[in-house]
Amino acid sequence: LHAYEPAYGRILPYDQHWQEAEEAIRIGIEMISAPRSSPRRDLEHADEMGRRRAAQGMPLELVVHAYRHAGHLVWDALIEGAGTDTAQLAALMQSATTVWSAVDAQADTASEAYRTTELELRRRTDEQLQALLDALLQGRRSPELVARAAAGLDLPEQGRYAVVVLRYDRREERELFHRQVQGEGVRFLWRMGADCELGVVALAGDTGLDALSELLDGRCPGPGGISPVVVGLTELGRARRLAELALRTCPPGSREIVRLDRRMAGALVVAQPEVASLLVADVLGGLLELDPADRAVLLETLDAWLECEGSAGRAAGRLYCHRNTVFNRLRRLEQLTARSLSRPRDLTEMTLALDAFRLTSQG
Q1: Are 340 and 346 in contact, with CB atoms under 8 Å apart?
Q2: What is the C-alpha separation between 283 and 338, in angstroms, rounded?
Q3: What is the C-alpha R_g of the chain?
């Protein structure tokens, strides 16, 4: 066996391997010569050996080869023992099926035990790696943990990373999404949370958030948040919190995947719900007394005007109304809020108040 494949020597000490092979052959011969009603000790031994070899990391091909080779050794020795005795040779030929059936059964049993153990070991390894990833996402930063995670997950300790937090309802949507988001320069590691899914994104080379957003856009069936780029596995906990904050800036019913660096104002609002509530009451107090439909029209006009960078003409095109109608609605907003859209401080307050109204229970 060692002459057939040098890997044996790297996995097993020679003396130990010799003793194990001798025991397996001896048990196999005893089984062949035992009454048919005897317990199949050879299969019990093969099951144990298959599990042991899987745990040792020996390739399955070598395990099967060992049993086949042992069968040939036994068969050759039986033929040599029979010599030229016609009666013994005749008896040996009649028992050939018994001999090779036993060898096949032992090899099959060892193979099945090997595969079962291999799956179990792989599952345990996956669970250990997922636990390491969870620890990083929870903000644990010990050097030992980071080193183990980097080695086990095949990630650079000082690489460039982002975290994505996604929310969707159905499992089939999740599986389809994972098949779609495979792109050059990015590698995803996914973890299911209590009510969302977390994705650690390893960014290769100069790949940035623009490429990541483009890859995710339109493929996720629910809302999501993307953190800024962080450097190092120790920063994944902070990146997760920032990605969750970005997700919270998505209004109810939204299906967008948003970047925190493009939702800073909304992030400030949702991060301080008590202050956000006070801001809405102070800035939009007059609007809150209006009929809901009337209030919605005014806020929609303000939102469109802000999105159009203060252009009443473009806002009118978006709202399907005359630009004078936009001006009239904006003047009414100024009256109800006692603020001027031409004063930067007032404009900032109104913008934040609009975000707060739409991202809190009041909206």
Answers
A1: yes
A2: 8
A3: 35
